[in-house]
Amino acid sequence: MLKHKSLTTVGVSHDDANLLTEFIWLNKDINCKEYPWKKDLAKWGKTVSCLKKMMKEPYSLDKEQIAFYIYRCSPTEINSEEFAKMAIVAKKLFRKYDMLSLYNMYERRRQELKDVGLEKTIYKTSKTKSLTQFLEELENESRTEL
After folding, report:
1. Which of 102, 31, 30, 38 is nearest to 66 (CA)?
2. What is the CB neighbour count within 10 angstroms for residue 25?
3. Whole-model pTM?
4. What is the pLDDT of residues 82-124, one digit of tens each?
5. Domain ranges, ordered by start, for the chain
6. Considering only 9-23, 24-38, 74-88, 112-126, which range has the smallest mean pLDDT?
7. 3-state SS record for the chain
């Protein structure tokens, strides 16, 4: 299993599900401090667990499809019930988005704030979309492509 360097915590490496969870956490606060999972370990664990379930049978979403969702919707949390209900549709509609590109985007955002001295302010990413809204958008896109 490939390990990824944490964006928030020097010396920590994440598996795919933990890195995707870190991206979601950064949508809440791009400037979150080291070890952000310590603040709410139960919620972090639930998110990681949900993502791991989505990557296994019967849903079989791959990490790049979940990265696509995170890139397009900037979720601040994953509702496991909603996600589970939509996973079958999502499998058909979610495109893939390179995790390294997503990693670099979050790293760049954090660095830009440090460069302008805003690392002590709370910075939230763009408006989030619900999974339902996003799937409707993707369904409309796929209809227009036909």
Report:
1. 102
2. 23
3. 0.72
4. 676 666 666 777 788 899 999 999 999 888 888 887 655 555 5
5. 4-145
6. 112-126
7. CCCEECCCCCCCEECHHHHHHHHHHHHHCCCCCCCHHHCCHHHHHHHHHHHHHHHCCCCCCCHHHHHHHHHHHCCCCCCHHHHHHHHHHHHHHCCCCCHHHHHHHHHHHHHHHHHCCCCCCCCCCCCCCCHHHHHHHHHHHHHHHC
What does the alpha-carbon distance between residue 18 and residue 62 come to, in Å, rounded to a whole number? 14
Quick one: what percent of the chain has pLDDT higher than 70? Answer: 83
Tracing tokens 């310590």 back to the chain, one arrives at 38
Residue 84 CA to residue 102 CA, distance in Å, equals 23
Asked if the bond preceding 58 is cis, omega within 30° of 0, the reply is yes
Most confident of 1-10, 12-21, 49-58, 133-142: 12-21
Name the β-bridge partners of 13: 5
Read off φ and ψ for residue 4, nearest 5 degrees: -120, 140
**Cβ atoms of 82 and 130 closer than 8 Å:** yes
Query: Of 78, 91, 77, 102, which is closest to residue 135 (Cα–Cα)?
Result: 91
